[in-house]
Amino acid sequence: MAYDEKLAERIRDVLSGRDDVSERKMFGGLCFMVSGHMCCGLTANELMIRVGKEAYDDALAQKHARPMDFTGRPLEGFVYVALEGFRTQAALAKWVGRGVTYVDGLPAKKPAKKPARPRPRAKAKGSRR
Prior knowledge:
Aspartate Aminotransferase, domain 1, elongated, alpha+beta, 6-stranded antiparallel beta sheet, 3 helices, 6 strands
């Protein structure tokens, strides 16, 4: 599933004042990580925002928002927002701000460890290889 690169640029613009943002392809789209935590993202035609459990009901009460049901079951704390809900840059910034507010309240993540290199297999005794 492809994502809308123009929307990705709009989100990058909203997050441009931060130096702790990275991107990762996830959920068939693109996710934006803030301080190592998933904050928001986009699919082919919707915005995904991580709002947390405490702000979940309020986010769902907003026009054009619905539960994130990527797996077929709603994932509490995450919402999808239809295109109509973030047409303007101000509306997009408000939604992305909800995600940033949530992840800014989470404890800092430790950097991921590099995967260990596989060790060469030892030759068996008596092997002529």
